[in-house]
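Anyone else keep sequences and structure tokens together like this?

Example one:
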Amino acid sequence: MRSLLAVADKEFKEIFRNPVTLLLAFGVPVVFFFVFGIGINLDVENLPLAVVDMDGSKLSADFSEQIYNNRYFTLVGYMSRSQAERLMRLNRLRAILIIPPGFARRLYEGRASTVQVLVDGTYPYRADVIKGYMAGMVSRFNEALLRDWLGARGMKPNLEPVSLDVRVLYNQSIKSAYSLVPGVFVIVILMNTTILASLSVARERDYGSIYNIYTSSLSKFAFVVGKIVPYWFVGMVNVATMLLLALLLFRIPFRGDPVAFALSSGVYVLAACLLGILVSIFTRSMIAAQIVSMIITVIPAFLYSGYLMPVSFLEPMGQIEARMLPAMHYMNACRGIFLKGFGIGDVLSSVCAMLVFCACIFALSMLLFKKREG
């Protein structure tokens, strides 16, 4: 234990005496948290829309106002079709509403009239959402027309025999920030803690002090655990800092058990530390350790954690890989604690899965670290 604490004390001093390492430990996570928390927004609102009204009637004006007079679209203006298509090519429009000539006349005559919507398909997800918005607004306009037509003839039938009552649970306002900000914990902790821990053994090699370790009576267990302890504490400080930012600055609701959050976060930080130590053991320099750490953390953090899309959307092999990595399990625990009120019992399976990952990485680190050169 004395040897382990000596290694941990030495590593703490390495962190605090080097301004670059200190900035990487405590400054970069906060910057990342703001970049991902503020910069990424999946809410599809205020989309720039142009209207090409070839009819010029009051009905066509009412119809176009029905489309853009809401929080989903922002009217850029009425213009010709060529002008609107040119603006869309310049990424200044996301949708174009085209109302053909004779629109009002056909409706007054009781005939159907087709309007066209051109949607920028560069971003498929947003294009699908725009199509859904348009379909809903056109349906509402049709109901209003039919109700007026029947009312003028003294008929008031029930146009909605089946009504739909939709209630959104856990995120009633459907704000993407409520889902994305808890997910930022997963990305920042995995990337920053792994990169920081990956410098530990690689630094000893770069400075030549690794030979002191080779010739000392220090056990491999004490060396590896002593290297992990400081970075675990740094990671937990970053978790606490980001939690305060999420609650006070982003106003994210925290409905779960703080003990469950501390437990799952502690195990996840340990997994990131162990992953960084493993990288540091088999790389030969700090530059190589940083590059490898970045490669092996960015993909799991974004693609295999469920941050931007559910893991169930992945291919079967991708789902297996996601369940083998700690990012997905901490993502489920973190979002569940923030939004669904998870307690210890709810996160226990995620914690156990992360502990299995920690045990495997620790065993591999002990196996690969040799107290001799070569």
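And example two:
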Amino acid sequence: MEKILIRGPDTIGSFVLASPFIRELRKNCPSDYIILCIKPLVYELAKDCPYVDKVVIYEKNRFKNFFKLKKEKFDTVFLLSGSFESALFCYILGIKNRIGYPHDHRGFFLTEKVVEKEKKHYVDYLLHILESLDYKIKDRTPEIFIRSETNKYEFLFKDKIPVVGITYTSIADDARKWPKEYVLELSKKLVEKGFKVVLLGKTKNEINFSQDKIINLVNKTSLLEFVDIVKRLHTYISVATGGIHIAAALDVKTIGLYIPGDEFGWAPYAKDSIVLSKNVYCSPCNPHKMKYCKNNICMKNILPQDILSFFD
């Protein structure tokens, strides 16, 4: 029996898309002892994972992490966290086999450098690590490990009116955000079509708006409550946030609003998902351009009527 560490991923979307990696690793290593080490943000998603023996939180205190993980005496680590620090940390831990992608100048700390021959969706990007070791992959479907439920927002569904969820920005409030005036226009049109609308997600700049059949729950739900709401939605409409990957993994119809270039690797990994993206003069985008984008013209080119056409 080997002792295996999975380090990361540490964001909600990347963790959901890493679920096939965790499951397929277990299938290939049924008798090994597997520990999953993640940051607090994704703990609720990770704590009930049935494919690992233990879940450990990676804390801000690096010394505490060192002594907590050093005693485990790992044989192998799979570095799903893309950071330079995670590779350096596992090198310092003295883990014999350190496997991952060598980007961000971290190849020196790896014993097995995985070569990325072509760009892939993030699900396939991670599974390629296992394939490079000749592990067999039978199922690429993402899943959600949360098992518990809440009843706090049961009132949303009691009247049997189909509910559409909308997430228009993220806590970063970056170039991926969709204009607030579009959100309000779309919400009102959906109500006219016989739907109820719930606004969801986390953001620094919330819409101060609520009326009958349009419920504003932005910044008001825990991750557990968010999952409980999303799994009962008729449709979930979202910019590129972790929430859209949760919805897709729960088999909820998803409509993703994406910056051109961002959709290839991070689109919802589900057959019934729809991705809307508009090419503009500055397409395709990348994280550097996104950081300095002043007007996010590509997102402004995705109009409410583009989405409404899927409800006709």
